[in-house]
Amino acid sequence: MSQTGPLTDDGLVQLLTPTGERTPHPELDARVAHLDADALRAMYRDMVLVRRFDTEATSLQRQGELALFAQSLGQEAAQIGSAHAMTARDHVFPSYREHGVAHARGVDMADVLRLFRGVDHGGWDPVAHGFHLYTLVIGSHTLHATGYAMGLQRDGLVGTGDAERDSAVVVYFGDGATAQGDVNEALVFAAVNNAPVVFFCQNNQWAISEPTTKQARVPLADRGPGFGVPSVRVDGNDVLATYAVTQWALERARSGGGPTFVEAFTYRMGAHTTSDDPTRYRSSAEEEYWRRRDPIDRLRLHLEQVGELPAEFVAQVADDADRLGERIRTEVRAMGRPSPASMFDHVYATPHSVVDAERAWFERYEASFDAGSTSEGSHR
Amino acid sequence: MSTSTQTRPTDPAGGGTSGTQRLTFAKAINLGLRRALESDPKVLLMGEDIGRLGGVFRVTDGLQKDFGEDRVVDTPLAESGIVGTAIGLALRGYRPVCEIQFDGFIFPAYDQITTQLSKMHYRSKGRLTLPVVIRVPYGGGIGAVEHHSESPEVLFAHTAGLRVVSPSSPVEAYRMIQQAVASPDPVLFFEPKGRYWEKGDVDLDAAPDGPLLDKARIVRPGTDVTLVAHGPTVQTALKAAETAAAEGTSIEVVDLRALSPLDTATVAESVRRTGRCVVVHEAPVLYGTGAEVAARITEECFYHLQSPVLRVGGFHAPYPVAKIEHDYLPGLDRVLDAVERALAF
Fold first, then answer.
1. Where is this region: Disordered (chain B) (predicted)?
2. B41 CB near a chain A CB, below 8 Å?
3. Do B271 and B324 have their domain in common?
């Protein structure tokens, strides 16, 4: 058996089996009853597009167009299912692999690559999309999410009973992050404040080369109850189940029920980032086990079984994916280098004499090359 | 969530909140925070023991009673959590003022402050602002146990995106805390805890003379030596100036107020007149404020200097036990000794 732990589907909330059969669930069936074939096809389309995005970005990195890339390959169901359960009023705090969620929140997929291209520390307007910037320091943003949720409470946007007002926060993090102090502090703050935040842990089995067993001796979902935070362990490769569980947790949060911890049991099918080599730390048998649980295949099989996946739709999605890939390739390559002096922009919201002096010096220095003379003066 | 009262509560200690009053440093900050809470409903205080207890130094005394538990928030015992959730609240439009109980306890929050708080405005290209204040009672001389007497201010001054300030008197504290809360940038507000009980006259209604978070000020004019200090050492410098005056030496005292931005211009202007400069601070000398000021003054005023810029500060040793802390801290004698050395060149 693999060192990632018992590879069974036991104890996971599941609505679709790995072969696409719909399994009944007494509590959650009602939460997906309204999802018609169009809604499921929309999820399928999003997952295919995100996978194409992953492929394209990985190629761009290999071609030297991106400094680094972190694939979401294999985690499409966890991301698309949970993201489809949100409303525009909800606010998301991602880590750095949530490309599927970004896409579902209306972020231009090309903009997601601005960070990895090295032309921006962000890339999109976090307010406009209700989707915060990626956070690279593991787990830091779970506290930001909790604070934001406490702000929603103070703004009177929780538990009003008005579905048009009530709002919540979803924060995404990985299995490795659960070892971080900040994640544990966030659970403490969220619990004692009854904050409307959903802790969405994508347990993708690996924190770079370290298996989850190096982070925890118990299932990650067991952590929540110790903080007074109800937990659910969901099959993260089942888009219907991640949708239903997130919708349940969000409804709890919005109505004033407090935080929930969701462990989406999934698998990072690619490398941690383009910098590492997973063949050094995991077996092909393990990868094969998870390949048979591919989240996109699972929904495809289901839609085929119920006769709701017309060939022309599949062809259209494939075509859309190719066009997305082409567009991203073109746009990434066209991303210009920022002006060097822009490094001084937005360090502070108000003037700061040291930054101003250094900018002035730098601009004189740059200009001196144009003028053919050397610069003078210090750079303060 | 309850809403705060909009009426101005009376000061439980008596005297109201207007007119000129003789206040301790701690009380001056308390009234400054009270003003900030009154003037903007988005301001909230958060920290350990700041509510019912009023903070271990009573700086927030009475504020929870008057503004409620949602605006003066007793938090879990978790510094990273305090600052991290303050970031989230600021992203939602609030203006949190965090209290870190003691200087040595800021380190669990160091990551949030330096990797998150300082950079959010920058990496969002100005789309997000984080008007967060972090109040840190700092410095020594109060006979405390370890981790309760440190001066970590330059660690934060070294990080772009943060403003780092330290008031040196009750009136400065009263005004600077209000400007810190009003600042759209994150401010590390270092309170010299050894001065909390010192008193000064504070005109609670007078408008401050301009923005205080950017500019150094000349506290005492002089002609022979410029003595540069901030926070707790400003009073030490003033005493040194008084003592030296009796011996015929005229010392000009400059209070930096802010370490970021560092107002080199005000110091340089003074040094051009006096020709000599001594920098004094409690933090260790190695890589400290004195090093920065000395380097800048040397670049700026080289031909005006009669002597090298000298530094007086803590040693490159962990803050010592209380029984010998006054041998570590730059006291009157060490400051005057440096002034003498500067004059001897």
1. 1-20
2. no
3. yes
